[in-house]
Amino acid sequence: MIETDRRKFLKSIAGLSGLAVSAVPGLASARGPVAAQVQDIRLSKNKNYIRLVFDLDGIADHSLFALQAPNRVVLDIKNTKMPHGMVDQVQANSLIRSIRSGVRNDKDLRVVFDLSKDVSPRSFLLAPSGKSGHRLVIDLHNKKGRTATIKKASKRDVIIAIDAGHGGRDPGATGRSGTHEKIITLQIAKRLEKNINQQRGMKAVLIRKNDRYMRLRDRITKARDYRADMMISLHADSFPDPRARGSSIYALSVDGASSETARMLAEKENAADILFGDVNLAVDDQMVKEVLFDLSLTGTIESSLDIGGEILGQLKTVNRVHKKKVQQAGFAVLKAPNIPSVLLETAFISNPREEKNLRSASHQKKIASAITRGVSKYFSRKAPPGTWLASSECEYSVCDGDSVAAIAEKHQVNESDLCARNGLYADNLLAGQVIKIPVS
Length: 440
Ligand SMILES: [Zn+2]
Prior knowledge:
alpha/beta; Aminopeptidase; Membrane-bound Lytic Murein Transglycosylase D, Chain A; 6-stranded mixed β-sheet; 18 strands
């Protein structure tokens, strides 16, 4: 892709700050991690809730969360033991079908309440008073309203739009052996689509599926129609000097850091038109426009740089990188809803050796899987709320000697799901690293 192409492309893409860090549901009370023992469990029924009191001989960190389909409440108490069979003394009732307990991480206690319906769990700790010692109180409140009719929305996949650069009457750059950029980008796009679709929680969509011409604007519209969470545009670089080589990644830039932008902004009379030419904001106030523009782009650029950084980190293992950092180029035209986007120059098609690589199926596969790893790593941290990748049952702190297989078995989850949820590859587990246990 030549510089003007790139600028045009970046100008027509914009992204959004819509990605939020996922939250683990539940309530937690933080106290010091002191080993404790459960001495008794008592149950009492109240009008709108059932109360369980765990008598402890010390204070303990705990977390509590509810899960649906089937309905259950999970209580985790850190560094705590409970005599075997103690849960059996709690009578089953119309709400609690059964109670199970187990040891997690060799030292923590997990208690699972299997329930007949969805509840709102609450918990709090009581300090010793009178004859009572430390108590952990769990209240299972009836949900108000239409509990029975609430259908649990299934967790959606994150959607990655893959844009194969050029196409049809626009061949893009051409290598010395006659390779057209448009062919290479489509081949890599298809491999990337396949790779991404093999990952749990991710779905890839191709902006173009064949050799056809598409306007930049139509590409953006299509990504938006797919409700893409991310867009990756694939290209191959070219430069007059055939020695130029390596991969580079571009994200949008709108601030003064880009000399080009600065120059444009300096040309006062045209700056606004150039920046806002495509924007249909229902305000006339120039300052408001600029603030809105700035706000909506800042988050997107951060996300785009973050995505770009993850992909670049993985590409390094496959190909030399032309520029070590994600490059920021051009300025974007605000389009809502925006999609964090990166433009990837896979290699220099103008470099004979890289041209040969770009044509090779095995090299294309390597590029595709490096991109997939980068995308996966990004979404393991920043998956949008409501997606499977953002969901997790609990967090687990990796111990010395742990393996993905062992952790998956311990939590009875699929190994590949565990990797997908955490962006794990090979044996890159580190002791002390906190990983999310996916909802099975
Ligand atoms: Zn290109």
